[in-house]
Amino acid sequence: YNLNDSTVMVSNSTFANNSADNGGGIYNDGMATISNSTLADNSASKFGGGIANYETAMVSRSTLSGNSAGFGGGIYNRSTATINNSTLSGNSATGFGGSGGGIASYDTVTVSNSTLSGNSVGSSSGSGGGLYNASAATIKNSIIANSLVGGLSTNADCNGNGNSTFQDSLIENASANCNVSGNLTGDPQLD
C-alpha cells in the first residue's frame, strides 16, 4: 500500500492470495517500481486485482496471473503505467460491465516486450479482455491474445475508445477502434 506520493521499490517478491477493495496485490498512489516479481491470485472487489495504480507505476520482468477485480483484473490504471518484459495471464474483470481483464487503463499506459494472454472479462456487457483503453495506450513488440469477453473471443483482445498505438505487435482479435493496422493479427498459437 503506497500512499501520499511516496516511493516504493519492490524486487524479487511474491504477492499472492491477498484481497482488498482496491489493489488486491498492490495499491499505488505514489511512485512504484516493481521488478522481477510475481503477483498471483490476488483479488479486489472494485479495481485492480493485481495492481491499482493512481500515480506512476513501472512494472518490469514480472508476472501477473490469476488476479481478479471488478475492473482491471491484472492492472487498473488511472495515471501513468509502464509495463516492460512482463506477462499478464489468466487475469479477469468480474464486475457487471467490467473492463480490462489484463489491463484497464483510463490514462496513459505503455506496454513493451510483453505478453497478455488468456485474460478475460466475465460479463458480455464488458470489454477489453486483454486491454481496455479509455485514454492513451502505446503497445510495442508485444502479444495480446487468447482473451475472452462474456465467453467470446470476438474483439476481445483490445477495446475501448482511447487512442491506441501499436508497433511491431501481434493482436489476435481487436475491435476496430484499437487500430492495429500495420501489425500482425491472428492466433499466435500460445495454447
What strand line-up does the widest sheet have? 2-6-10-14-18-22-26-27
Question: What is the N-to-C succession of helices and strands?
Answer: EEEEEEEEEEEEEEEEEEEEEEEEEEE
What's the oligomerization state? single chain
Helix fraction, binned, reads under 10%
Given the C-alpha coordinates, what overall shape results?
globular
Largest sheet: 8 strands, parallel
Number of strands: 27
- Helical segment tally? 0
Q: Helix- and strand-based class?
A: mainly beta
- C-alpha termini separation: 34 Å
Indicate the mean pLDDT.
94
Rg for CA atoms:
14 Å
The percentage of residues in β strands lies in over 45%
Low-confidence stretches: none
Description:
The chain is mainly beta and 191 residues long. The chain contains no helices and 27 strands. The strands form four sheets. It has an eight-stranded parallel sheet, with no helix packed on it. Strands 1-5-9-13-17-21-25 form a seven-stranded parallel sheet, with no helix packed on it. Strands 3-7-11-15-19-23 form a six-stranded parallel sheet, with no helix packed on it. The protein is globular, with a radius of gyration of 14 Å.
Could you outline the blueprint of secondary structure elements for this entry?
Layout: E1 7-11, E2 14-16, E3 19-22, E4 26-28, E5 31-35, E6 38-40, E7 43-47, E8 51-53, E9 56-60, E10 63-65, E11 68-71, E12 75-77, E13 80-84, E14 87-89, E15 92-93, E16 103-105, E17 108-112, E18 115-117, E19 120-121, E20 131-133, E21 136-140, E22 143-145, E23 148-149, E24 158-159, E25 163-167, E26 170-171, E27 184-185
Parallel strand pairs: 1-5, 2-6, 3-7, 4-8, 5-9, 6-10, 7-11, 8-12, 9-13, 10-14, 11-15, 12-16, 13-17, 14-18, 15-19, 16-20, 17-21, 18-22, 19-23, 20-24, 21-25, 22-26, 26-27
